[in-house]
Amino acid sequence: MKNMNRLAVAAAVLAFSACGGGAGLRKSSADGSRPVWVEGESPKWSRAQYVTGVGSADDEESAADRARGEISRVFSSNVSVDTTVDESETNVNSGGKTASSFSQQVAQSVRTASKKMLEGVEIVERWKDSAASRYYALATLSKSKAMAAVAEKTQALDADALQWKTKLDAAGDKFERAKAGAKLAALLKGRLDLENDRRVLGGGPLPSTVDVSAAKAAAAKALEALDVVVIATGDHAEEVETGIVTGLVASGLMAKRGNPGDKGDLIVESQSAAQTIEGGDKSWKWSRGTATVTLKDGREDKAFSRFDVSDRQASADAGEARRRAAAGLAKKAAEKVSAAITDFFQNQ
After folding, report:
1. Per-residue pLDDT tens over the stretch 37-47
2. Helix spans in the chain (H)
3. Cβ atoms of residues 243 and 278 within 8 Å
4. Domains in the chain, start-ordered, CATH in brackets?
C-alpha cells in the first residue's frame, strides 16, 4: 500500500510541478565543470531549508520529472482528507400532515498526495553532461512552505475529527456510532500520516483539539460493537473466509464465523468454487478459484454490495496450484470487502 501511495505522490508531483514558474522552464547549461549538486548538497539550496531531489536522463524533461519524483520518495505517504458535509432539512406535506426528514451526505475522500504542499516543487537547476549526452536536474521544495501547508491541513482535519467525535458521543444507535467511528478513524489515520510528513520536514508534532488517544479508542469501540457474521461455503471456503475477515479487520470490524441463516448487524456471505484448468504445457498444472461475495445490512437483510473475484495460478504440483489460487482469491476478497465496508459507512 505504501508503494502505491508513493507512486500516487510521484504522479501528483509531476502534475503539479508542470505548472511551475520560470525556474522550471530554464534550459540546461553545458558550460563549466560538473555542478556540486549533481553528486550532493548544493550550497545554494541547503538541505536545512529545502527538500531536494536530483534526476538524470537522456532527455531534459525526463531528468526534470525524475528529480520531482525524488522529492516524493522523501515522504512515506501524503494523505489529505477532504470532508464536505451537506445538511438539509426538508418538510414534506402528505395527507395534511407535515413530516420532517433530515438527510446528511458526507463525501470523504482520502487521497494520496497533498496538492498544496507538492505544488511548491520547483526545478531550480539544470545541467547537461555533453561528454555523456546526459541531462541532470535539481528539484527543490521549501521546507517552511511545505510545513505551513501541512499545519493548515492538520488543523482542518482536527476540526473534522472533533465534529465526528461529537457525533459519535451523541449517537445512541449502534450503526450511527459505527458510522461516526469509521469517519473518525479515517481522519485520525490521515492526521498520523501528516505528522510523519511534518517530521520529515524537520518539525515536531502539532497539538490537537481532539484527544487523539481517546478518540481512537472510542472509534474502535464503536466499530467493534457491531455484530458481524461471516458465512463461507464451497471450495476454498476457509481461505476466502480468512480473506473476508482480513478485509473486515482492516476496516476496524470484528467478525465471527456463522452458518447459513445466521443473523447479525452485518452479514458477509461467500460461495466459492475451484476448477482444474488444462494448459498447453503438460508439465504445468493450473487451478482457478472463483467466489461470489455478498455483504448485507442485517437490519433489513438487504444486500448493499455483491462482487465476484477469481484467481488463476499454475505449479508443477496440482495441489500447490490449487493452494496458490486459493491464496490469490483470499487476497482479492480482502481488498474488495474493505472497500465495500468503507463505501457502506460513507453512504449511511
Report:
1. 998 778 899 98
2. 2-17, 60-73, 115-118, 143-170, 174-200, 212-224, 237-250, 318-346
3. no
4. 2-80+112-143 (no CATH), 228-346 (3.30.160.150)
Cell of 288: 482457478
Name every residue whose Cβ is closer than 8 Å to that of residue 256 and which is 6 or more positions away in sequence: 227, 228, 229, 230
The model's pTM: 0.68
326 contacts 236 by C-beta, under 8 angstroms: yes
Short-list 112, 118, 115, CA closest to 79: 112
Cβ contact 232:259 at 8 Å? no
Sorted by sequence, the CB contacts under 8 Å of residue 148 that are 6+ apart come out as: none
d(CA 15, CA 22): 16
User: What confidence tens digit (pLDDT) does each residue in 70-85 have?
Assistant: 887 776 444 333 333 3
Q: Which of 184, 179, 189 is nearest to 226 (CA)?
A: 179
What single-letter DSSP state applies at residue 299? T
Residue 161: phi and psi, rounded to 5, are -65, -40
H or E element that contains 270? strand 266-277
Take residue 62 and report the three cell numbers written for it.
525526463
Task: Tell me the CA distances in angstroms from 50 to 43, 65, 128, 198, 200, one per residue in order.
Answer: 11, 18, 23, 13, 11
